[in-house]
Design goal:
Length: about 290
C-alpha cells in the first residue's frame, strides 16, 4: 500500500511538469490551430538559461528570469518564422515549427557542451517524511508551482481583457477580428506564454539531477498528454498531464510483477494510455468534437 501511494505522489509531481508543457502546446493550438513542434527546443533553451543563470544568481532568481527570456525567444520565433506563414495550410506551418525546433536545439546544445549540467535546484533528491510515506521535495515543488501557474493562467483567461480576447480568437478568429480583437497580438502572446511554461516545466523535469542535450525528449511526452486530454482543452492538458505522470510512475513501480513486459515499460506507458483513450473518445477526454455539415 505504501508503494502504491508513493507511486501516486511521484506521478503527480512528474505529471505537474507534463501539464505545464502540455499547456504550452494547447495555448498555441487554440490560438493558431497549429501544433507547435518548437516546444521541445523552447523547453531545452529555458532549462539551459536556468542552469547558466543559477550559477551566479541562485535558483530562485534564475527561474523567474529564464521564463520571460524564453518567452521573448518564443515571441521572436513567432514573429520571424510563423507570422509570415499566416494564411498557409496548418501542415506547412507545423513543418516550419519542426525546422525551428531543430535549429534552436543545435544552438542551445552549444551552450550545454559535452558535459552534463544541473539547474542547481535546492532540493536534489531530498525527501520529506509523512508518516510511513517518503516524498521527494522536487515533486512537491513541481506540484505547488504547477498549481499556482495553472490557477493564474485560468484567472487570466477568465478575468483579463487580453485573456477574453484570446478566448474569442480561439473560438472564431473572423468574429474576433470583427469585434476589434488583434489576432496578431493573440498569436504573439500565445507563443510567449507557451515559451514561459516550457521553461518552468522543463526546469522541474530536470530538477533533482543533471541533464544534457537529450532532455528535449521529455517534451515529447506532452504530445500524448494533449491528445489524451484534447488538443483544444486547457483543463484536459492538466488532467492528461497528471494522468500520464501517475500511469508512468505506477508502471515503473510495478513493472517487476510483469517481467515479460521488459524493463522500461514506463517509457511507452503514455502512448499506450493515449491509444486506449482514443479508442473510446477520438477527440480526447475533454476535446471538442468537430461537426461537419453537408
Amino acid at each position: 500500500m505504501t508503494a502504491l501511494v508513493e507511486g501516486l505522489l511521484r506521478g503527480v509531481g512528474v505529471g505537474s511538469g507534463y501539464a505545464l508543457l502540455a499547456l504550452g502546446f494547447v495555448i498555441i493550438y487554440k490560438a493558431t490551430r497549429v501544433i507547435s513542434f518548437a516546444q521541445p527546443a523552447l523547453m531545452l533553451a529555458g532549462v539551459v538559461l536556468v542552469s547558466h543563470l543559477a550559477e551566479p544568481l541562485g535558483f530562485w532568481l534564475a527561474l523567474p528570469l529564464a521564463a520571460p527570456l524564453t518567452a521573448l525567444l518564443a515571441l521572436g520565433i513567432e514573429r520571424g518564422a510563423v507570422r509570415p506563414m499566416v494564411g498557409r495550410p496548418a501542415f506547412v506551418v507545423a513543418i516550419i515549427t519542426l525546422g525551428v525546433d531543430v535549429a534552436v536545439r543545435v544552438v542551445v546544445n552549444a551552450f550545454i557542451g559535452l558535459d552534463v549540467r544541473s539547474v542547481h535546484d535546492p532540493w536534489g533528491l531530498s525527501t520529506v517524511q509523512f508518516g510511513p510515506l517518503r516524498v521527494e521535495q522536487r515533486h512537491i515543488a513541481a506540484f505547488v508551482a504547477a498549481t499556482l501557474l495553472v490557477a493564474a493562467l485560468f484567472a487570466f483567461f477568465r478575468r483579463s481583457r487580453m485573456g477574453l480576447a484570446m478566448r474569442a480568437a480561439a473560438d472564431d478568429q473572423e468574429a474576433a477580428l470583427a469585434q476589434g480583437v488583434s489576432v496578431g497580438a493573440v498569436f504573439a502572446l500565445s507563443w510567449a506564454l507557451a515559451g514561459a511554461l516550457a521553461a518552468v516545466g522543463g526546469t522541474f523535469a530536470a530538477a533533482g539531477g543533471s541533464f544534457d542535450g537529450t532532455l528535449w525528449l521529455t517534451a515529447l511526452v506532452a504530445l500524448p498528454v494533449i491528445i489524451l486530454g484534447g488538443l483544444d482543452s486547457l483543463p484536459g492538458a492538466v488532467v492528461g498531464g497528471l494522468a500520464v505522470g501517475v500511469a508512468q510512475e505506477l508502471a515503473a513501480t510495478y513493472q517487476n510483477h510483469a517481467p515479460w513486459l521488459g524493463g522500461n515499460v514506463s517509457v511507452i506507458t503514455p502512448y499506450v494510455l493515449m491509444l486506449l483513450v482514443l479508442l473510446v473518445r477520438p477527440y480526447g477526454l475533454f476535446g471538442t468534437r468537430e461537426v461537419e455539415r453537408v
